[in-house]
Each structure stands twice: as C-alpha cells, then as structure tokens.
Specification:
6 helices, four-stranded antiparallel sheet, alpha+beta, binds iron/sulfur cluster, single chain
C-alpha cells in the first residue's frame, strides 16, 4: 500500500490514530467469544455476531488469508458517556468512515474484509434467526470481537490510545486487505 497516498486520503477524515498490521502477528482469542456468548444480548442475533460469523478457527483462517490490515480509531464526543443511546448513535459515523477506508483500499486494487464495531443494525429485522442469507453482505461489518480480535490488546501492543477521557469515545476498526 502507498502510505503517503493513504495518509493524504485519511487527512480529510477524523481518524485519530492508525497502524498498519501484519496478520501473521495477529492473535484471535477464544475468551472474547465466550464473553460474546455469555454477556452480549446480540449473540446469535445477526450475521455479524458469533456463531453466525463461523467458528473461531474459520475466523482465524479468514483473517490470516489477508496479508495486512489497517487498524484505526476515530473519536466522537457526546454530552454524557454514560448515555448508551447517545454513545451508540456516534457509531454510525465511524462505520461510514470505515466503509470509506475500505473503498480506498479497493480502489487501490486490494481485496478487503472489514471488522468493526458492535453488531450489525442495517436491517430492522436481521435474517439470521430466519435462517436466510444476509441481505447486505457487502455492507455488513462483523465486529472485531466476533472474530476473537481483542482491540485493547492491539492498542496496548501498538502504543495507541484506548480512552481519551472526558466525554469522548474512541471507536476501532480493522480493514484487512490483500
Ligand atoms: S445486513 Fe441485515 S441481514 Fe445482514 S447482518 Fe446486518 S441486519 Fe442482518
């Protein structure tokens, strides 16, 4: 990837930090998926969540089938970080930004696969529970955790910011490419 061209591209967006990662170094963790199954009400409700995304092994293989990934954060401000509804509303801008990063890489000739935030809420009613295919597989971004990727582990390893404090939120995405 042409880094200077990428930097020029992202300068028009509120990307807070980014790192270029080699997927050989990336780990997937079973424990994240256990948290999904035990603590997340969205578990088993969309194609963007486990078990709909496949087994951990399948997720690992999918990640490793791409050579590199852009891991990045964007920052959002809310009036109250304890207000979950307000916080989640800021996620859509980050998802749009993630789509733009993916589009840039595709235009550069790469095949991409995007992992992003939370579960998918594109459709009012997901087809997952009806056993029908996803309506928008090209738009849908499974969440990082669904694939066993631990964002804060990458953040620590790459010396990035995980929390800016105050009424700010950092959202993270990983755009894999080959
Ligand atoms: S795009 Fe629609 S069908 Fe596909 S995962 Fe999202 S909500 Fe479900």
């Amino acid at each position: 990837m042409d880094i200077s061209k990428f930097e020029e591209f992202i300068s028009q967006y509120p990307i807070y930090e980014y790192r270029l990662l080699d997927t050989k170094e990336m780990e997937v963790r079973e424990r994240v998926r256990i948290i999904c199954s035990e603590d997340c009400e969205r578990y088993g409700s969309t194609w963007a969540c486990p078990p709909g995304v496949g087994t951990l092994e399948e997720c690992r293989n999918k990640i490793k089938s791409y050579t590199q990934g852009i891991f990045f954060s964007s920052v959002a401000e809310v009036s109250d970080v304890m207000n979950m509804e307000e916080m989640l509303a800021t996620r859509h801008d980050h998802e749009a930004l993630t789509t733009e990063v993916g589009r840039f890489l595709e235009e550069e000739g790469h095949e991409i696969f995007i992992l992003s935030t939370e579960s998918c809420d594109i459709c009012e009613q997901c087809t997952y529970k009806e056993g029908k295919p996803c309506r928008h597989p090209e738009r849908m971004h499974p969440c990082l955790e669904s694939h066993g990727v631990v964002a804060h582990e990458i953040v620590e390893g790459e010396h990035m910011e995980y929390n800016l404090g105050g009424n700010t939120i950092l959202w993270f995405s990983l755009v894999l490419f080959r």
